[in-house]
Design brief:
Elements lengths: L8 E7 L9 H17 L3 E8 L2 E7 L6 H19 L13 E5 L4 H9 L1 H4 L5 H11 L21
Antiparallel strand pairs: 1-3, 1-4, 2-3
Helix pairs in contact: 1-2
């Protein structure tokens, strides 16, 4: 009997609608744990979940049985529902439409895991806009700025 074998590592990035800096230290780690649980529950291997006040990074080993689009729909829908149920933010929480998804080799995993887990330190000196555009450029992805996340002036204060 034949089997399907794969090693598909994907780094996904998605942002809060309106790029609001609403993911505070008070509940950020809880959100990341919730997203990690959702990833695992859906048969995907979680390698890292981290982020900052207005965005989340996830690194996963994606099985061949789910598309990136379906995976991201599940993660974003479940996590926004959970955030709203917890009343972490006033009004209705939503993620922006769209996301970045970047493939990488197994040899890059440790470097990307460390990068994701040190987002707070990273964003003391680098804006999310600069970070995201560098990710696109490093991956040689052509883009039109009007079709990427809504970016506003980033500030580097720590909540």
């Amino acid at each position: 009997m034949s089997n399907t074998y794969s090693q598909i590592t994907i780094h996904c990035v998605f942002a809060v609608k309106g790029r609001e800096n609403c993911i505070t230290k008070k509940w950020r780690d809880e959100l990341h744990r919730y997203i990690a649980g959702t990833i695992t529950k859906n048969g995907t291997k979680v390698l890292a979940v981290g982020g900052w006040k207005d965005h989340v990074h996830i690194l996963v080993g994606l099985p061949v049985t789910i598309s990136i689009a379906d995976f991201m729909r599940i993660i974003k829908a479940n996590s926004s529902k959970w955030i709203n149920e917890q009343n972490f933010v006033p009004g209705k929480f939503q993620w922006q439409s769209g996301y970045g998804a970047f493939s990488l080799s197994k040899s890059q995993r440790d470097t990307v895991v460390k990068y994701i887990m040190t987002q707070e330190e990273h964003h003391k000196t680098t804006s999310f806009r600069d970070e995201y555009i560098k990710m696109l450029a490093d991956s040689e992805i052509s883009f039109d700025e009007k079709y990427i996340f809504d970016f506003y002036d980033d500030n580097f204060d720590n909540k």
